Amino acid sequence: MSLLSVRNLVIDYAETRALDGADLDVAPGEKVGLVGESGSGKSTLGSAVGRLLPRTARRTGGEVLVAGEPVFDLPPAGLRRLRRRQLGFVFQDPIGSLDPTMRVGAQLRLVLGRGADVSMHLERVRLDDPRVARAYPHQLSGGMAQRVAVAMAMATSPELLVADEPTAALDSQVREEVLNVVFSLAADAGTSLLWLSHDLPAVARRCDRIAVMYGGRVVEHGPAREVLGKPAHPYTAALAGSAPAAAAHGARLEPVPGRPPVLTGPSPGCAFAPRCALAVDRCHHERPGPVRVRHQDVLCHRAGEVTA
Question: Domains in the chain: how many in total?
Fold first, then answer.
């Protein structure tokens, strides 16, 4: 049984469709990387897991189940219980995710309860300076603030941690340190991890599976090495080919041509068709269903014809 199950989820913001029938599963203890260009729907999907979407968002179809609980159908008390016991979140902006009016130690005690050993939880994220607990968020560096956010998210050992580009605002050295903390804490607690990222090589190194999003749908998912090493969807191949960190020295990068779509309703065909070199007439007019290629599940009429 999946810990997280997203089925045909449709989310609209006013006239814009952010998720157009997204499907995703995360098993207990699994580490899944969710990748794709900006505007692909990653953050909307991540927020939907905990029903943390803004008020302008409307769910017009599909469902999200966490540990068998229907997230969008829970009453307020049930939703609070689910977030407290099963879910943890780490967001892009570490300073913005913390309360600027409260000291770090006080914020941790709100999560852990009065009398909790705050210093122990800070030491777990490699913040062993006692001054950190007495500091306000603005007195911390970005890397320190993000470690505090990780400590708060993992304080209750949630079953699922959703990390939405948690290192995007950090420099490269601090980025690796924070990721090491996130993944080691998750491994120690047996916590499943859904990591939203643009860093394809890092996702390939750290995750069990990769899910690739485009146009509000997961267009390919499977084992990390298979998805990036032998992609079966043209978009995955184009995305992998445009990643600077994955390119060989002296290799010429090929950017993905065109721009991601801005949907106003369900895509009539494959949303990637206008940018795809393999597209044929049916790609523009017939919505692709899932097919199995090697170890990957792919939404593409020409899946398997891709050469990476």
Answer: 2
Q: d(Cα 166, Cα 147) in Å, to the nearest integer?
A: 10
**Domain limits for position 62:** 4-86+158-299
Same domain, 80 and 129: no
What sign does the CA torsion over 185, 178, 196, 234 have? negative
How far, in Å, CA of 227 to CA of 296, rounded? 7
Quick one: pLDDT at residue 62?
97
Instruction: State which H helix or E strand residue 160 sits in.
Output: strand 160-164
What distance in Å separates the CA atoms of residue 211 and residue 236, rounded to the nearest whole number?
10
In a domain, 92, yes or no: no
Angle 142-154/104-112 helices, nearest 10 degrees?
10
Of the residues 152, 182, 197, which one is the last residue of a structural domain?
152
Whether the model clears a pTM of 0.85, i.e. scores above it, the answer is yes
Distance CA 122, CA 132 (A): 8
The Cα–Cα gap between 246 and 228 comes to: 10
Which residues touch 27 (CB under 8 Å, ≥6 apart)?
Answer: 2, 3, 192
Report helix, strand or coil for 8.
strand
The pLDDT tens digits for 94-106 are 788 889 999 999 9
The reply to whether 307 falls in a domain is: no
Tell me what the mean pLDDT of segment 173-181 comes to: 87
H-only helix segments in 18-117:
42-49, 76-85, 104-112
* Contact assessment for residue 194 and residue 161, using Cβ atoms and an 8 Å cutoff: yes
| Cβ atoms of 152 and 111 closer than 8 Å | yes
